[in-house]
Structure formats: structure tokens, C-alpha cells
Amino acid sequence: xxxxxxxxxxxxxxxxxxxxxxxxxxxxxxxxxxxxxxxxxxxxxxxxxxxxxxxxxxxxxxxxxxxxxxxxxxxxxxxxxxxxxxxxxxxxxxxxxxxxxxxxxxxxxxxxxxxx
Length: 116
Ligand SMILES: [Zn+2]
Hints:
alpha+beta; 3 strands; 22% strand
């Protein structure tokens, strides 16, 4: 990936070629998830439990999704299959996000130059 600061130095044809490659390689994963994968160690409510002495329970894995200002959706990923699916979905979303950001940068630069 070309750094943003260097993109304005590239030739228009180079940008257009990069744009074509980006578009042809862009796949919409049907399982993508916009969220975070969070690992947590927790304390329980028992008075004499080991977690009170620093040996917390876990790890527990959660999917955390921001739904807007102050609104978060969070749930425990109970099975290894759920965790694997969540990680893959989050990775697919991040990959698409990066490609969209690069496409937008290229289009912005092409627009600035008056090119297509
Ligand atoms: Zn405990």
C-alpha cells in the first residue's frame, strides 16, 4: 500500500492502474463484521475466590460493536467456532475498510488533477 503522503507524487497512470487493481481485487465478504474482538479476565462475586487475590477468571472473549454515541453491543463468544467466525468477520471488514480508504485517496487525487 502506498502511503498517503507519497500518493500525490505518483503518475496519473500509476494511480489509475492501482485503482483498477484495487477494484478488481475487492470482494465483499458475506460474513464481514464491523466490531472489535476483546479478551477479558474477570472477578466474580464470591468473597474468598482466587480472583480476589489477582488470579482472575478467563480469558473470556467478547464481540464489541459501537452502535453510535454511547451505544455499544457486546456479547460473549462462547465457542471456538464463534470466536473464529468473529475474528474472520472482523478481519474481512478491516481489509475492505483499508481498500475503500485507499480507493478514496486515489479518487481524491485523481479528482484534484482533473483526471478520471
Ligand atoms: Zn472468582
